[in-house]
Request: fold
Amino acid sequence: MNQKAEKPMVTVDIVVFTVKNGDLNILLVKRKFNPFKGKWALPGGFIREKEEIKKAAARELEEETGVSGVYLEQLYTFGEVKRDPRGRVITVAYFALVPDDKFRLRASYDAEDVQFFSTKSLPLLAFDHKEILQYAIERLRNKIQYTNVAWSLLPSAFTLREIQDVYQAIWGRHLDKRNFRKKLLSLGLLRSLKRHKRGSRQRPAQLHSFKSTRPIELKRFF
Amino acid sequence: MNQKAEKPMVTVDIVVFTVKNGDLNILLVKRKFNPFKGKWALPGGFIREKEEIKKAAARELEEETGVSGVYLEQLYTFGEVKRDPRGRVITVAYFALVPDDKFRLRASYDAEDVQFFSTKSLPLLAFDHKEILQYAIERLRNKIQYTNVAWSLLPSAFTLREIQDVYQAIWGRHLDKRNFRKKLLSLGLLRSLKRHKRGSRQRPAQLHSFKSTRPIELKRFF
DNA sequence: TCAAAAGTGTTGTGTGTACACCCATGT
DNA sequence: ACATGGGTGTACACACAACACTTTTGA
Reply:
């Protein structure tokens, strides 16, 4: 190995997904400083000297949303030489899956605002964050085909309608209710609770929960 | 973003796969310097100041094997704080797929030897390279299920037996010849050549080539 | 003539997909 | 009573998996 290399800076950026009323949303922060002051960007920041990379992502996520213990997976490392006008900055991108009911947004030191946006109507993004986001959506779409990660987007008790909405939001297309339920229930990984979801002005829906929350590889899923 | 962070060093490491007589092999280099002097390690090195990360991986690969233009994909970024005794070193791992007939190994400045090893009988590896390698194998196994990347491991003309061997080497299990051929041919992506592979003391096998080499996403593949 | 790999079809089983009606509730 | 989403079953098409024998060559 040749030690002559100049050291780049290394950051983490996090694509935080949630599903809000049937729509896939991601978290953005409004930058308080240059470059891209006033523009929306993915939450993120520098990795500390003796901090594991994933820990850094979890810390940044916790700072912006107050949530911890959610699904967090490394996505890809973006390092184009000129992606940051300040110099060589390599960013390790992560994506997080957060249930709609869990977070409490907070502005932070370098963000003047924090907000969820529907992936259907996004503002212009700073840096190469649009590319990162597209990559994250693609990964999520692929991943729900052979894992149960999408479940991380749900609260602990949910209706079958709600879980179908999560899949539809990610896929961006409608699924047949009967086929969806048949397939999902045949996996044998749900427990149906005694309780029903009341309060809407329709027939109350049976609530369900997962027997286990840990990640599972499925043969194939839709 | 908080600028107080100490800059880590950033390297690339490459897992170079090939299939040699029915066995999945990877390229290792014997380290000439400390740390881990004399131990086998993945080829790799530092990213240069104004060099794209993938370019760095391609350059290191070319230096050790003389090949270029092969399949090269970013795998994962490993950054455990203490993975390198010299200090904080974050490595962006790549994997490459190289046809058996293409390379010409060369020792380089910091490697005293370069050699392919069967994944069935590997030496002890330096750093966390065992972990990187396991991750790469897992990724390759998953990837052949829904893409045609494995084709990058074949020469331009090959027999159906040879392509089956590639899949079997990666999967680590035997596949039924008739089912394999039926599935593969039904994709309509092969062209059967006029030539036959003679010279072995069995019946000559029809040679084939790919109509197109570019990467394709398949619905599912074995 | 023998050894070794090439080549070739059929059948059963399981999984995905398409599709329509009645039910329970709140207003 | 009515609007709204909840809940349920069947039939067809397709893909995967299991399985054995004949052919062609070189030695």
